[in-house]
Amino acid sequence: MIYLDHNATTPVDEEVKKAMVDALDFFGNPSSNHSIGKAAKTLINDARIQVARLIGINAEEVIFTSGGTESNNIAIIGTAYRHKKGHIITSVIEHPSVLNPVKWLEMKGFEATYISVNSDGVIEPDDVKKAIRKDTILITIMHSNNETGILQPILEIGRIAREKGIIFHSDTAQSIGKMDVKVDGLMADMLTVVSHKFYGPKGIGALYLKNGVDLMPLMFGGEHERGIRPGTENVIGIVGLGKACEIAARDMPLRFIHTMKLRDELFSILKREIDIKLNGYNAPRLPNTLNISISGIIGEEVVSELNDKVALSAGSACHSGIRRPSAVLKAMGLSDDDALSALRLSVGKDNSLDEINKAAVEISHCVKRLLEVKQSRSRCLKYLKL
Fold first, then answer.
1. Is 318 considered catalytic here?
2. Computed from CA positions of residues 224, 229, 230, 232, in that sequence, does the dihedral angle turn out positive or negative?
3. Which of 112, 333, 354, 366 has the most other CB atoms within 10 Å of its CB?
4. pTM of the predicted model, to two decimals?
């Protein structure tokens, strides 16, 4: 099996595994005021520094959470409830863990504007600026899209938010660990960090919360994580996240170049073999991500056919047997057919050039077989009608 679904999740790095296994011996409650508890607390503090170094912030600005969904919910709902009422700006291409909290807040009396994207999948900063109102309390725009890998002009949007005195949050779940992401280059007040997107464990993440930004906690308990996220800390998961951040900071230049080379090689081979269209062709993208539409096929059928050979994702959602085209691709102006024919291919640091070549062959052969079957059925139907 060749794994090309790294935007869904990544395998846990061997160094991360070792750090987590070693952390199992530190069983103390980090809130306990004895040597066993203090030893566990030291591991958390070390991990906080590792996260902070990766994205260029102060360690005390790191809030550990259970992952991206919780980080996004804390940032969005916590900001809204601190203000009690107001207007929120987001985009139509956000992850459900951003869109659904915003929609829920609308039911509670808040108002929201959903910014669309151009044909390349990019948000225009001027559209964000025009959407700002006197009562706008939060702008939340993702750094890179999980389906297309397209990067958004976060620095420009951050400047707009800063000039207007509006809190700015960015979901950087797909970007951190794949490319260099620093807070100074985004002008964000909050960022979402997700461990399992860059070779750390699942069930752990972080929220960068700029000093001075005030949030209402979503849960109430002890004073853990500055009182923003109460509950006894997941020491082993936090250690894993910290180690993943340390490795990402160390290996980032090589990781970026390697994945971009594999991504481009994969696209080049597929383009020679089958009729494909790269979605977001003119936009800057993550170094590891391809989103392609293949004329005449259904993406989900390719995923199913390659089930035990190549792991990849389709650009559509299937519920109760009904296929729905990706809302992200539809927002970019793709037809239903093109959106349903989409595939997302996301390579990783451990993929090899040989794997990419083999995967390209498997995908190309699969698409050709599906097209032949479709053409054969079409000829049969035409014959029967005669």
1. yes
2. negative
3. 366
4. 0.94
| Amino acid occupying residue 345 | L
Q: What is the pLDDT of residues 112-167, one digit of tens each?
A: 999 999 999 999 999 999 999 999 999 999 999 999 999 999 999 999 999 999 99
Burial class (CB in 10 A: 0-12, 13-18, 19+), 120: middle
Supply the DSSP string of 229-295, one letter for each residue.
S-S---HHHHHHHHHHHHHHHHHHHHHHHHHHHHHHHHHHHHHHHS-EEETTTTS-B-TTEEEEEET
Ordered by where they begin, the domains of the chain are 13-248 (3.40.640.10), 252-385 (3.90.1150.10)
| Active-site residue, from 245, 318, 366, 380 | 318
pLDDT in tens, 333-382: 999 999 999 999 999 999 999 999 999 999 999 999 999 987 766 556 55
